[in-house]
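Q&A FORM
Asked by: J.P.
Topic: structure of TRAF-interacting protein with FHA domain-containing protein A

PROVIDED:
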Amino acid sequence: MTSYEEAETEETVTCLHMTFYHPCQEDKMMFRCLNFCKREQLRVDETAKFGRDSSICRYNLIDSRVSRIQFSLQFYRKLNSSEFCFEIKNMSKKTKLIVDRTELGYLNKIDLPWKCIICFGDYQILTEMQEGESMDYFETYLCLAQMPFLQERCLPSLQPVPETGIFPSLFLSQDESPKEMDENES
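REPLIED BY: S.T.
REPLY: Here is the structure written out as tokens.
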């Protein structure tokens, strides 16, 4: 037998890919303590904490508006299943955490969807889980985004557009109000 035949089967490790965005990153460098583009391995009994207190949080955000512990991620296996998941818990008393469209108050927690966007303040974090088999470790892989994932969208006017393409309401003074006219009137 050769050495590769005798070697133990290599286990894949669940990896949580997280891509961070903040509009002031270039000026304020709030992500400077994060290790980007490098996999970090954590034991399954470790809770991954994100916040500004470096003595408590493994993932440190340099911003006085971020809570000492902003949120935590706990790796676990679902009951009667081989499926692994992450649970996200809001640890901030002052800031709500939004996971996709679900708003979490202080100490609220939910299962992290396999792909979602986490928001608090001006922070946006795109997360995506890559499944693995290991029951001893999980990994994180952090990236930095140059563009936001979510943008405020200007909703188009719900008024019908006249054939002329000009909205009469734009030319009305504050004293004038629209007047109803019959189609046959000029």
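FOLLOW-UP: Residues 153-159, 167-177 have pLDDT under 50 and may be disordered.
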